[in-house]
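I am sending you the entry underneath: sequence plus fold tokens. Let me know what the token row says about the fold:
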Amino acid sequence: MSDMQLTWSHVKKPIVISGISLGIIALSITGTAYAYRDSIYPKISVQGIDISSKNLKEAFTILQEQNKTLSEKPIILTYEDQEYSTTLTELGITLNTDDTLVKAYKIKREGNIIERLQKLFQPISVNWVYSSDTENIASSLGAKVNPALNTLADAKLDYINEQVTIIPEQAGESIDSEAIAPLIITELNKDDVRIEIPLKKELPTITSASWEAQKSDLDTFLIKHEIFFSETTITIPTEEMITWITIDPKTRKLGISQDTIKEYLKSVQKTLTSQPVDAKLRFDSATQQIQIVQEGKEGAQLMIDESSRRIRDDILAGVAKTELFVAITSPLIDESQFDALGLKTLLGRGESNFRGSSKSRVKNINVAADKISSTLIKPGEEFSFVNTLGKVDARSGYLPELVIKGKKTIPEYGGGICQVSTTLFRAALNAGLPITARQNHSYIVNYYGKPGLDATIYIPKPDFKFKNDTNNYILLQHYIVGTIIYYEIYGTSTGKTAKTIDPVVLESSPDGSMKTVAYREIYEGENMIKRDAFYSTYRPPNKATSNPLQ
């Protein structure tokens, strides 16, 4: 019995003392918490930034200033013997001042009484709370670092000196974007932040051994192969075919890549593809009939997906020749559609005189006029002279004319084309069609008669444009009598008529500059429903600013 009492007394005493101690500790911690209710506890820092005992406002200000400094602090990333300088801002890594302050504030306030007491007088440093954009890190560093990294490459075949050769595989490296931010954050308190770029290894799926194991079967795939359509035949070069051969990473069996065949077909499709050519038409005013000046032609469109599938299947089956899948496209305009076009009457005519032009200028006028003639414009469509004209160079049939540019006299192709645009402008005016883009020449050109009814063009601008606001097609055509070029526009009458008023001179100066205005009136019966004004401003004659297409 006495032994039991002795034991109890020895146990009970420490418990009483421990309870008293815990009470004192609790009161101490509670008092400390109250004293620091609006402040950071002592001996707390954020990666070397001391914010001990600072009130929350002071601590926030300190951290916010440090945040600005750290965001633009140079960070050196290294790869082998190369260095790349960057910043947190550039990488898209953002330090969060608010969350970091909350983290520092809570650090000694959490846990049980004993844990909090143990931490109370210990120096504790917390890391910055941050967010990072791994895609931004990858793109920001990738442009700098990727060229220096080893590129992943599967073993592949090549054809060198008429021999099949295996190009060995190569393991690759890529930036571990997710690992970079944590590494940088832990080093931010250092004066010199220097991080070795973390990399991920990339292993090839096809090795030299894979090809060696299948080398005996390659001859089956490297037979001579031809692709054809109509009268066109192309023999696939062995060095091209060898790039089509693949190995399935799982089964290790040879195959043919349809995607690689598609890329090849894209490179040769111009040989196999042609656009349909509409018939060139002319309206015979004597017979009031449409005539075909040039027959239309069917087009051919290579269907790459289906053709590549056919080629792949034929090679796998040991077939030596593949007929390509080509869609035939018909011209939009042919003889069967003449009645539906609505080309019934002359809507308007324009003319100009190119007397005094050089042989090359006359040649260029004829080339451009032929190019624009027979153009059909859909109802509601806007006609662009520049787009319809196309390229102006020797291949298009144009001759060079000497022009002055700056202080040099140089030849440029196409001198005289503006004679055509000006004549067509006058025809569109007289046809009552809406003019949507027109610019006069910078100075008066004698070929165009009285100033104010000219339309200059150049490549790519200015352009001359008008819109077909009728309910039917309209046809453009020209003819030349002596040195006079005429443009006619045929279509279906809307019941409206147009009258072009000769230009009126608004201002004229002794130096040759001039301002004019020309009017176009549109009537329904005898009632004028619209009056358009076309203003022109001409500078003094100056050959240095001449338009070579005038």
